[in-house]
Structure formats: structure tokens, C-alpha cells
Write a structure and sequence with these properties.
The chain has one domain: S16 Ribosomal Protein, Chain: A. 30% of the residues lie in helices and 40% in strands. The two termini are 23 Å apart. 19% of the residues are buried.
């Protein structure tokens, strides 16, 4: 199963995350199938590749709870339903 989840990177106490599509059985920081965005919790900065995320969601990828909240804030689910 493909999951949309966060991949951690950065220094200690200065963490950032990439939003990636990965096989659910792969380790957290393993090689992703595709990188779909960026999330920095310290500055609340988010950059998303919306067309790629919409494509993955339509293919049946399941977002984790945290990624789901990020996508809801960015109104990505509205675009999934409208297409």
C-alpha cells in the first residue's frame, strides 16, 4: 500500500519534513517513490506539489493523520473531489 507521509531531515532540534509517497512497509527515512512537498513545523511553512498529490490520492494512496491535516489546511481535498 502506498502512503503519503512525512520524511524527517535536518539537524537536531531544527527538524524539517518532506511529504513523500512511500510503500507503507518501508522505513521512515528510506527512499521515497516521489517527493510531493515540504513542511517546516518551526515556521509553519508548507510547499505542496498539488497536481502530484491529487494524482496519488486518486490512485488510492492513504495519507497519515498528520499529512491529512496539512492537506486539509491547503484545501487539497476540494481539488480531488472536483476533478
Amino acid at each position: 500500500m502506498i502512503k503519503l507521509r512525512l520524511k524527517r531531515y535536518g539537524k537536531k532540534r531544527e527538524v524539517s519534513y518532506r511529504i513523500v509517497a512511500m510503500n507503507s512497509r518501508d522505513r521512515r527515512d528510506g527512499r521515497p517513490l516521489e517527493e510531493l512537498g515540504y513542511y517546516n513545523p518551526r515556521t509553519d511553512e508548507t510547499r505542496l506539489e498539488v497536481p502530484a498529490i491529487v494524482k496519488r490520492l486518486k490512485e488510492g494512496a492513504q495519507p497519515t493523520k498528520t499529512v491529512q491535516r496539512i492537506l486539509e489546511k491547503a484545501n487539497v481535498y476540494e481539488q480531488v473531489g472536483s476533478q
